[in-house]
């Protein structure tokens, strides 16, 4: 395969140096790919697609009339991360989750950080994600964010930057697991030679974490899903299957005297821990959104009474708001008295006058985001947009400044990607998964999302992105 | 097991069996028609009667029962809730909502079979001269699914709910396959007992893979023998009695009963029908009339299914339950 023609376009490339040489952790892969014919690569890609279809690894897309089931394209060229790089990431992520968890406990209880004016009071208390019913709550074992899927990118300088914290119900972990199974078949020998750290024990770790939340010796665990029409249903079902847990929808559960039961063929059966994959305001129409048909009436009362544990705890959303994000370095410093190991992307808060002025003047060079929208919706990429769009966002910002933040455009590193029968650079991000149970543990792997369109920086699966298997090396 | 999950597994069992049997229906009729003298017109209407889809059919196509339309209707029509395509889609949808309860192998095979039928629809198989190979593949896909389940699925509650659905559906469908013969018109009353009549009975036996077994037990093909075999035989896995007996065992496994008497209304209805067949002989069928006998069987099987539903699948509205407790 003529990888020799591969051109690094002024971005940081994960495989190739700017001068054209191959980075050392990609050497063995490079040797293999040079010996692999175009035809063989095409076959590998074809088998990967087929395997995904057979596994039913599909997701549902909103705003798309092409039918509801789609496959997330899995590129057969892996993203490889050497151990030295990973060690830093791991330490940085642990630090960040530790601090964010302390932050959540604080803002729902003593509010010290607000009183000390490190984080503006109104930003938290007026946030729609600050859930009043959670005030005074200490979740089982004091853990709020049990499962996190932090989004990072690498800029031109080759350094990682945190993009989003995703403390609510991050999805995509099933792709990390299933993609690995598929890619293993494509490069059986290379896996051994390179020493790729396994990810397949994730479901076991997740199960152990969930069991840890209950004091019973053999707690009954359930995964609470919004149902088959949710875009991540495949993942909910997959995780339940892998853990041997019950996959439940709201109407399977019933609350009586502050205890939660499943409705079974043999009557009611107690359930002790729920891995909820429902937005927190939907879990209980009596406590939160009264219009939710997906939740379980009375669930939150049972939770507060300590009769059921939930991961993640309700109320975590307030800490991954894009405006709160700007304060995370200060949050880390405040609770841990440490310098953040991982960088934030510099963030301009349109709620602050100076920042807003800068954003309005330099909108053509910035990425503007809504503070609480997800999935690449409601954002503007300044350099790629035209004047009319700039003007539209200027108006939006002026009319509701607290709703917007802006960041400089990062260039996002590239990874070689098979496009038709050529290998070309495509931009990627990185979503590692972190579990918080007895300890905080970063899973040695990640979901690498890749923007398949040439030059595009939008990697979201809902916007035409694909994925890559991510290899974290022992060495 | 969750009531919702049990419900889906039960219907997964019913729909896969239904898809397989509809493929058989088309096969049996196709074979029967090949044996007709060339001056006789093909008969496809009887199939629509036997499957019980008559009303839906005439509402959509009127009274025109040509081969292509009937095959399309029974195999691919999305407006027919029982067509092979619809059944296999329903089976897959049920499997999708309870995937965590299936083995990986069964899910993948079912998914593959679904895509095969969908491709067949896109390729307009009903227009082909001889679509039997396609239906043969559908059958073997589903049989392979059963084989995979047999060697990969644990014998816990879910297994028995699927078997229960599968056997009840098969009991119903065997009775309907037999009914096809009732609806097929012979050229004249004198043809009863003629070589052509025997050819029909043979084709029918072959469609349920019963021909060789029948031959070994009964030797000669004769209508009362075939009826007895397909309704009352105690050993043949597609006979109505056999299916009900197996379904009854599933109910006992589910309730944990020792098989004496009954613990719930589903077991009661099932036991009544099973014992009726257990102590019947072919003259009881002939006295009532084959078609009438089968009709009654089908009604009772439906009743059993309703009892299963009310005993195991009904769930309470958790909102009402909660507000009542709070008051």
From TrEMBL, chain A:
<dbReference type="Pfam" id="PF14403">
    <property type="entry name" value="CP_ATPgrasp_2"/>
</dbReference>
<dbReference type="InterPro" id="IPR016450">
    <property type="entry name" value="UCP005522"/>
</dbReference>
<protein>
    <recommendedName>
        <fullName>Circularly permuted ATP-grasp type 2 domain-containing protein</fullName>
    </recommendedName>
</protein>
<dbReference type="InterPro" id="IPR025841">
    <property type="entry name" value="CP_ATPgrasp_2"/>
</dbReference>
<feature type="domain" description="Circularly permuted ATP-grasp type 2">
    <location>
        <begin position="78"/>
        <end position="451"/>
    </location>
</feature>
<dbReference type="InterPro" id="IPR051680">
    <property type="entry name" value="ATP-dep_Glu-Cys_Ligase-2"/>
</dbReference>
From TrEMBL, chain B:
<protein>
    <recommendedName>
        <fullName>DUF403 domain-containing protein</fullName>
    </recommendedName>
</protein>
<dbReference type="InterPro" id="IPR051680">
    <property type="entry name" value="ATP-dep_Glu-Cys_Ligase-2"/>
</dbReference>
<dbReference type="Pfam" id="PF04168">
    <property type="entry name" value="Alpha-E"/>
</dbReference>
<feature type="domain" description="DUF403">
    <location>
        <begin position="1"/>
        <end position="313"/>
    </location>
</feature>
<dbReference type="InterPro" id="IPR007296">
    <property type="entry name" value="DUF403"/>
</dbReference>
């Amino acid at each position: 395969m003529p990888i020799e023609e591969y051109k690094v376009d002024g971005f940081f490339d994960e495989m190739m140096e700017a001068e054209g040489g191959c980075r050392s952790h990609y050497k063995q892969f490079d040797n293999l790919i040079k010996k692999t014919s175009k035809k063989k690569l095409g076959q590998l890609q074809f088998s990967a697609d087929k395997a995904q279809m057979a596994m039913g690894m599909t997701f549902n897309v909103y705003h798309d009339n092409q039918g509801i089931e789609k496959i997330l394209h899995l590129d057969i060229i892996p993203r490889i991360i050497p151990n030295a790089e990973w060690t830093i990431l791991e330490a940085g992520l642990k630090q960040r989750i530790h601090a964010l968890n302390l932050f959540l406990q604080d803002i729902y209880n003593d509010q010290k950080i607000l009183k000390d004016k490190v984080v503006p009071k109104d930003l938290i208390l007026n946030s729609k994600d600050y859930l009043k019913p959670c005030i005074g709550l200490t979740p089982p074992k004091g853990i709020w964010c049990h499962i996190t899927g932090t989004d990072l990118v690498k800029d031109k300088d080759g350094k990682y930057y945190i993009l989003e914290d995703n403390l609510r119900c991050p999805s995509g972990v099933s792709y990390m697991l299933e993609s690995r199974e598929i890619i293993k078949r494509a490069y059986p020998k290379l896996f051994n030679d390179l020493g790729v750290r396994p990810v397949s024990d994730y479901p076991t770790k997740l199960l152990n974490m969930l069991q840890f939340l209950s004091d019973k010796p053999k707690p009954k665990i359930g995964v609470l899903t919004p149902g088959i029409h949710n875009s991540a249903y495949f993942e909910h079902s997959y995780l339940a299957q892998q853990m041997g847990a019950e996959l439940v929808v709201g109407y399977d559960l019933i609350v009586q005297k502050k205890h939660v039961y499943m409705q079974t063929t043999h009557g009611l059966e107690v359930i002790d821990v729920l891995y909820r994959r429902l937005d927190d305001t939907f879990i209980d129409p009596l406590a939160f959104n009264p219009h939710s048909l997906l939740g379980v009436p009375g669930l939150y009362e049972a939770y507060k009474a300590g009769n059921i544990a939930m991961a993640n705890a309700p109320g975590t959303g307030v800490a991954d708001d894009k405006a709160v994000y700007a304060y995370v370095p200060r949050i880390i410093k405040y609770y841990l008295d440490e310098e953040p190991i991982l960088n934030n992307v510099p963030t301009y808060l349109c709620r602050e006058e100076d920042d807003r002025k800068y954003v309005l003047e330099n909108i053509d060079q910035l990425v503007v985001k809504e503070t609480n929208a997800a999935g690449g919706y409601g954002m503007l990429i300044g350099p790629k947009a035209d004047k009319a769009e700039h003007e539209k966002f200027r108006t939006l910002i002026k009319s509701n400044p607290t709703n917007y933040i802006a960041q400089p455009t990062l260039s996002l590193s590239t990874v070689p990607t098979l496009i038709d029968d050529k290998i070309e650079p495509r931009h990627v991000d990185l979503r590692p998964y972190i579990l918080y149970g007895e300890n905080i543990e970063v899973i040695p792997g990640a979901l690498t999302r890749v923007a398949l369109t040439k030059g595009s920086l939008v990697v979201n699966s809902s916007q035409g992105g694909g994925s890559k298997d991510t290899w974290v090396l022992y060495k | 097991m969750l009531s919702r999950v049990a419900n889906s597994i039960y219907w997964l069992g019913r729909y896969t069996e239904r898809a397989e049997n509809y493929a058989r229906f088309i096969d049996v009729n196709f074979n029967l028609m090949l044996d007709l003298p060339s001056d006789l017109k093909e008969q496809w209407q009887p199939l629509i009667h036997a499957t019980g889809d008559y009303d839906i059919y005439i509402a959509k196509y009127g009274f025109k029962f040509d081969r292509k339309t009937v095959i399309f209707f029974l195999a691919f029509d999305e407006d027919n809730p029982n067509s092979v395509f619809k059944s296999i889609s329903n089976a897959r949808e049920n499997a999708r909502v309870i995937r965590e309860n299936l083995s990986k192998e069964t899910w993948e095979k079912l998914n593959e079979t679904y895509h095969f039928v969908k491709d067949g629809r896109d390729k307009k198989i009903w227009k082909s001269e001889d679509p039997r190979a396609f239906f043969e593949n559908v059958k073997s896909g589903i049989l392979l699914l059963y084989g995979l389940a047999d060697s990969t699925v644990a014998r816990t509650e879910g297994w028995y709910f699927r078997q229960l659905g599968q056997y009840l559906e098969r009991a119903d469908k065997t009775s309907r396959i037999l009914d096809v013969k009732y609806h097929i018109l012979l050229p004249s009353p004198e043809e009863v007992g003629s070589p052509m009549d025997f050819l029909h009975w043979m084709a029918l036996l072959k469609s349920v893979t019963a021909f060789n077994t029948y031959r070994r037990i009964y030797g000669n093909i004769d209508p009362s023998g075939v009826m007895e075999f397909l309704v009352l035989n105690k050993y043949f896995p597609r006979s109505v009695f056999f299916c009900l007996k197996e379904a009854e065992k599933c109910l006992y496994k589910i309730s944990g009963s020792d098989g004496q008497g009954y613990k719930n209304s589903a077991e009661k209805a099932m036991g009544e029908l099973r014992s009726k067949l257990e102590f019947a002989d072919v003259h009881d069928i002939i006295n009532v009339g084959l078609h009438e006998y089968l009709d009654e069987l089908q009604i009772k099987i439906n009743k059993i299914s309703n009892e299963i539903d009310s005993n195991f699948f009904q769930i309470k509205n958790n909102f009402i339950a909660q507000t009542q407790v709070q008051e």
